[in-house]
Amino acid sequence: MKKTLLLIGIFIVVFIMFPSASAVFTSSHELSGTLSKDTNAFFIGKTEISGTFTGFPIEQLINSSILHDMGGFPLIGACSITNLDTVIVAEDINITNANSLEELFFQYFDHITQYSDVDITTDAGLFLLGINQGRLNVSSNLNYAVTTFIPLEIIPDTTTRFFLMVTNNPFAMRCKGDFAVLTTLSNTGTIKVKDRHGATLWSSTSPNNYLIIQNKEFSVTKHPPLSLLPLNSLASTVPLKLSISPADPPDIEITQLIENVSVALDNFGEGTTSEFINNINEFVTLIQATSLVANGAMVFLQTNDTVTIDHTMQQFTSVGFARFNTLGITYVDSSSGPMLQANCTLISLGNHFYIPQAKRTSDGIVFPYELFIIWILALCVFVYVRFFLKPPVDIKKDEIIKRYAVFFHIVVLIISFILLDSEINSLFGISAFTLLFFQGFSAITGAFILLELIIWVLGYFILAIPLQLIVYSAFRLLGIRKGGNGIRKAIGDLSIWVFCGLYILLFINIVFSLVHMNSFFPMG
Description:
This protein is α+β, with helices and mostly antiparallel strands. It has helices at about 1-15, 20-25, 100-105, 255-265, 275-290, 370-390, 395-430, 430-440, 445-475, 485-515, and strands spanning about 30-35, 40-55, 55, 70-75, 80-90, 110-125, 125-130, 135-155, 160-165, 170-175, 180-185, 190-195, 200-205, 210-215, 215-220, 225-230, 240-245, 295-305, 305-310, 310-315, 320-330, 340-350. Helix 4 packs antiparallel against helix 5 (about 275-290).
């Protein structure tokens, strides 16, 4: 009776020590807050976008009375403007010499050609679409996209804040206004006017040629990979909203996406500012650097923003990173910056990872007293059973269990490592097995294998050993000694997975507190 009560007591205490184990493995954290406009942030995943854009004042780029009431929208690379009733092409003109369309047509009557029932296509380079007293409406779902809010110098010596998208999906926009004007801003851009059968009626690369679209409403399809939409603080009927979630793995083609962006940038040619190109290139570099975990994620650079996580105030330190299940971005055009609302699975505040048990500390570190208690319990039980109780061994029962214990241990060992790898993948979006499957063996794959082996060793010494001592003592109470070794080791292996789920971020925070990562990777 004494042995039975002691055995029951041991297991009750062990299970009490981990009341939140199942919650930790499936836990998520509610993050909300407003990003300052100085924060460089970009967001990766399946993206749903809706809203209205009014453009930047086009007269800042082209000094013309005709364009005085126009909002400008840059178009990068291939675009299609379809089902147009009337397009007027004005070739080799100086648009600054005329005060109205009527005066322009009269002054350059021999440079004017009118086309009906046509489509317009652009290819390579940078173009400018101006909409007179109008707006551009967006409502689209992108399977995988990288988005950001970025200041660009598309106008020399003038910084304009843009919403930038990189995606492999076509992007549809709806334009409304009195009329629209299209021209090229680079010497590599080609504009074509085609009939409804696809035959080219007119083609040009000259920035002195202008196409006047007389439809009051028409559609623009922006083809991959780059899209730019100017932001401003003017009141909008439909403010920009973003809803982002992890993309389906087959839709993620990050290598092809980066190659497409590089080709698009190479095709810009002259006519665009070097600052504009540099900013885009820096953005592409960031995409490459985070491509391994770039799905359902957001990255912050040069930030000291304060956000709310699980009802507590937390501050980013220079950089930040979060993986999320869902992310909503609103009030993008607000003067105070965009507002975020996310359900996150992993949050890095720059100098440490956020963990609930240490959310009120500045370094994300809290002493794991429960591990200390488990060690004391394990040692006490082991010493008491091994040296004081000295229960007899049931040889027959010991031999029966021994036959199956080795196979049980092998199976559980494999399962435990798979579970540990899955936990790493759930946290960071990448793991040793996923890298081996998608990339084969590489330096990065080797680094993740080493990481998981280190976690395994830590888990063994910190949690597996005391639990094995407890299991050994329990088997001795049941009259089993060597026969239970396989089961004892199997339970120790499973405890390593538990250790990973419960404590891996805590121990990473301890490493961060000892080694200042910014000295190795200065990012802001």
